[in-house]
């Protein structure tokens, strides 16, 4: 097994002095959370914004991928209120298939 390490710094205009600044750098350098707005290496993070279910499923999915390989797109979509042409759709489907998130029975999910 070969492991490569590269510097992967990201710059955010809205985290300087924030209580979570060091943790934000940790997760963004590992691309577990990428941030919002702006370019890939610069932009905003919005550190005081809540996490959506799509963000949660994406973070859990990316952590899974680091150990077990890439999650494949699914043809089965359990939730009618998800955009299935975006960056998080495969993670929503994967999380649902693995019992991480469940729905109300009407196509809307609820996080466990």
Report a brief summary of the structure.
By secondary structure, the protein is α+β, with helices and mostly antiparallel strands. The protein contains three helices and five strands. The longest helix is centred in the middle third of the chain and has 16 residues, at 53-68.
Order of helices and strands: EHEEHHEE
Question: Could you report the average pLDDT, rounded to the nearest whole number?
Answer: 80
Kindly state the number of beta strands.
Answer: 5
Largest sheet: 3 strands, mixed
What proportion of the residues is helical, as a percent range? 25-40%
Strand content: 5-15%
Architecture overview:
The strands form 2 sheets. Strands 1-3-2 form a 3-stranded mixed β-sheet, with no helix packed on it. A hairpin with a 5-residue loop joins β4 and β5. It is an alpha+beta fold and 112 residues long. 17% of the residues are buried. Helices cover 30% and strands 12% of the residues. The longest helix has 16 residues. The chain is globular, with a radius of gyration of 16 Å.
Give the topology, please.
Blueprint: E1 11-12, H1 21-29, E2 36-38, E3 42-44, H2 53-68, H3 89-97, E4 101-103, E5 109-111
Parallel strand pairs: 1-3
Antiparallel strand pairs: 2-3, 4-5
Feature tags:
112 residues, alpha+beta, 3-stranded mixed beta sheet, two-stranded antiparallel sheet, 12% strand, globular
């Amino acid at each position: 097994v070969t492991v490569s390490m590269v510097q992967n710094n990201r710059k955010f205009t809205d985290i300087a002095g924030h209580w979570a600044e060091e943790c934000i750098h940790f997760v963004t350098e590992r691309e577990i959370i990428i941030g919002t707005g702006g370019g890939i290496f610069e932009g905003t993070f919005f550190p005081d914004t809540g996490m959506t279910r799509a963000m949660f499923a994406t973070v859990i999915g990316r952590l899974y991928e680091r150990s077990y390989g890439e999650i494949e797109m699914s043809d089965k979509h359990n939730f009618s209120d998800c955009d299935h042409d975006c960056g998080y759709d495969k993670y929503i489907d994967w999380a649902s298939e693995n019992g991480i998130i469940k729905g109300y029975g009407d196509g809307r999910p609820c996080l466990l």
